[in-house]
């Protein structure tokens, strides 16, 4: 395993295809006030406001770990696959 810290913009800016295993596709984020989706939107709103405020230096925000594997053999010239673990 090769653990590295990357900026989210770097990760999302790469040309790649993410493959999510079937057992993880059934997970649902909840919309109730104290659950995952409202908390994510609150974090995103706060970061956007922080970025727009010219008097403040934006602080980094930790999103958590993304653990993935790259298949051993990928076709030359194909979009790289990233398999979420």
Describe the structure in your own words.
- The protein has helices spanning 8-12, 22-25, 36-52; strands spanning 17-19, 68-69, 81-84.
- The chain is an alpha+beta fold.
- It has a domain at 29-54.
- A three-stranded mixed beta sheet has the order 1-3-2, with no helix packed on it.
- The relative contact order is 0.21.
Please write the string of helix (H) and strand (E) elements.
Answer: HEHHEE
The amount of beta strand, in percent, is 5-15%
Shape: extended
Low-confidence stretches: none
Helical residue percent?
Answer: 25-40%
Number of strands: 3
Mind describing the biggest β-sheet? 3 strands, mixed
Strand order of the main beta sheet, please? 1-3-2
Give me a quick take on this structure.
The protein has 85 residues and is α+β, with helices and mostly antiparallel strands. The chain has 3 helices and 3 strands, in the order H-E-H-H-E-E.
Give short descriptive properties of this protein.
3 strands; 85 residues; 31% helix; 3 helices; alpha+beta; 3-stranded mixed β-sheet
Present the secondary structure layout:
Elements: H1 8-12, E1 17-19, H2 22-25, H3 36-52, E2 68-69, E3 81-84
Parallel strand pairs: 1-3
Antiparallel strand pairs: 2-3
């Amino acid at each position: 395993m090769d653990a590295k810290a990357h900026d989210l913009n770097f990760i999302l800016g790469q040309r790649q295809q993410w493959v999510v295993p079937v057992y993880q596709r059934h997970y649902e984020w909840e919309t109730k006030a104290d659950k995952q989706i409202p908390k994510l939107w609150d974090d995103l709103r706060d970061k956007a406001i922080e970025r727009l405020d010219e008097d403040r230096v934006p602080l980094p925000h930790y999103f958590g770990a993304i653990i993935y594997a790259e298949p051993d053999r990928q076709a030359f010239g194909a979009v790289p696959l990233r398999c979420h673990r």
